[in-house]
Design a protein that fits this description.
The complex is a heterodimer of chains A (121) and B (793). With 121 residues, chain A is mainly beta. Chain A has one helix at 54-67, and strands at 9-10, 13-14, 20-23, 42-53, 73-78, 87-95, 103-104, 107-119.
Chain lengths: 121, 793
Amino acid sequence: MQGYSGTYAFNGVNIMPPSESKWNTRDNLGYDGSGHPIYPAIRSYEMSWELISTSDLQQLINAQLATASTGTMVVDLPKWGDAGYLFYSYTGCIINEPEVGAYFAGYSKDVHLVITNVRTN
Amino acid sequence: MQLSGPNQELIRTQPQQSELFLSIFQPTTALACMVSGTVSKNSITIPYKNVSSGSYLAVEPGMTLLVGSSAGGRELGKIRVRSITSSAITVSENSNINWPLATHLTVLRYWEVWPVYPRIISDPNNIDNVIFYKDYDTAYTNQNTILGTFPCAGSHLAGWAGDSFYFSNTGTLNLAGVALTHDWAFEGATVTGSTSATPGSITWNTPGHYVVRYKVTGANGSVDTTYRYVSIYNRPENSSSNIPILKWNIDTVSGGRDEGGYSSTIAIKEENITINEGDVVVLFSENWYGTQKVNLGGNSQNPSIFFSGHILNNSIRFDYKSKTTEFEVGSITSLMQTMEGFSVSVESKVNPSTWFELLDMDGRRALYHYLRWHTTVLYLADFQFIGTDQKIQFFDSDRQSIYDAVDNYMRGTLEGKVTADIQGKIWAEVGAWATPNPTGSFPTQFSITKRDWVGSPNIIERLIQPVSYLERGGVAYSGAFTGTFSAIISSAPGTAPGFRGNEDKQEGMALFDQAQLNILTGNLFANKNSKYPEISSMNMNGNYRNLDIAPQMAVAQDIDPSDNNRGISLHAPYLVDKISWRYDSKNKVLRCEISYISLVNGDAGETITIPAVQTISNNGFNIPNFRLPSINPLIPSLGTGMRFWFGQYRRIYSQMSDGNQTYDMIGDSTRTTTQGDASLFAGSSGGTITSTGLYLLIATLRITLNQTSSKLTFTAPAGNSQLGTLEQVAGENQYAGGITALAKGVPFTRLVYYQAGQPIQISASYTGGAHDPDPGAQSLENMHLDVYLLKLT
């Protein structure tokens, strides 16, 4: 589904845009007899916040708890392989548990979140 | 499974994504009640009362009965239901249920694999007769004449609410060749039944666990039934209830033809999971090949089913620390290997009249008889025989596992194998190596090139032939109607073995004729000695679910010299032998590792002529003429002992004249003979026979006999039965002395019946030759007579 907004969202609800984010390199599962690398079909996307409020962090945590180990989510991300910076809604994504750094003046530092099971084909 | 050309390309498309889901069938309760009264051990009729749920009308033969001391309990055991009335349940013969402690009974809507025991009793009307029953009290009527059907209904199924599954009876075979009527029942589906052989797509919209029943009736009255389990779930992203087990993992699902099927280990990290030994486990899948979401592969009509099997006995383990339940699953053949059946013996007949006679038997009919009447396997799995069948006169199965009973028959009789595919169908196949023109009979269904494997292929090369001589033998039986048979043996490479390797012999095969056997031995020999026998553990870069260990499948290997570090060029058909699928749940990748074995054609072997069987006459055996071997004087004592009688030499002279003269030669060691006296020796041992019986009398003579045409005759007792004759042939005499060959240590043997009290006597008489040129030189000299007497009885 084509996203209308250029922002990050979980199930259509915007989240705090990360300080940095990227598409992770897929695992190389080997090379076939012709020398071509073998990749899995799914990708993962990583987001990080240098400083995030507790309420914004709670939104991330709640998203992960809502799906836990049984569910998936629609996540709006910058489209893989797009020539521009157009967002795309990817379905069936899995939210991993966020990594959280130290508190600083009531904010959380160095928060990382990985979205997996993202089909970009 | 052979894929179409476009699908063969699709299954290679990268990247691939496979997601596996775990389903464990949870049967519903047909009847829950309590035991009425006290039931003794070994009971097969169990009265019941206080039905708390269900009805006896919902109970069908073959269902599983749980026996416990509380509602739903099973701690006292489980047993197979045979029939039910409104007041009692009849179960199979048993001694393992502690019925006196049983209070609660639960009949599950569930069929599982059981051995079925025969029963043999003494005929009350004829003490010399026995009566055979199957399954305790099923008497013979005409079951082995009308035979029956291998019913095929596909694999056990699992999927999402709203999914459709395709049903057909492909593979169903009636052994009498009669017309069939079909009765399908689809519990919980949008279409609840069908009378078609191919009902087509059936949809389930509501989550739950359901039973599909397929009953096939032959026009001659045979009835066969099979059941399949269908588990329907909500998608986890859409619901939190009625979803499959999600917190689980699996490493590999591995299988091989030698093992007879597949096995795996599954770990579940969810709590409140109820699993039991024998439970049906299904792994279903969703697959993407590139951008296309489609399920490809598998022999079943429903390719979303990746694996179907059972929780194996004694394999469930619970780790209390990590709260993980781990268990092993295996194909139905793995379950069959853990259950022992009784011995079975059946003979081929034109008009069967008992359980141990079967109409014009061949392999299919023998296997059907065993599986239908001695197991419940056909309730739960498709079974199909592939290959050329042969008539057999006898089918004998020892008491062994129900898997070994059928597999040993295929191995020993048809060079075949019984193997389950990954979706749970059982294939009984004549081996590809034992098939005429193996490479032509098994055309390749897929080509493996370098884009299909990861890394480099591991080609096994054989430098020394392991088999130098292969011999196979058996009986070509024409069937019960004509009743002729012939023993056949064949060898390869021929009557002369190769120069390296061991011999490989097997007998007891079911054959068609000598030509067929010669082709078989030649192909077996060639395949057992092929130069590149195996491509081992080839890692594939996708799931390649179109490949399976059964039915036998040939793939073309296209390996160029540049594809391996030994520069081997290999372009030949190979059979899939072992497969191991590894599931990476993080990357959602399912990839396999396959081992292949070679498939070649060989030159025909050679006939081994079997010598004719000797004719038997006079209601016994003709005793051929035979000579007792030379026996040296030193004979060990046998029976009651031996009498030794030694005679000393005598020298006599005789004056010969024209014509024969016969002289009685009597004498003893002290007598000197005089001229004319042809007495040589006679005497006794100085004793008499003390015990009536049969004796072996052995005499050896050494003598110098200077005479032509002379004859020494020994008699014993004196004057009675002739003991033996030492006769000189004219021309062999030596005048100047020397012992003739005839006279040197030649033994006489005679069986003599002595009465107690008879004297032991030997006498020898000498007859002179008629035309001796030198009458004065006639002499018998240096005679040494040894006599032995052995009592035999």
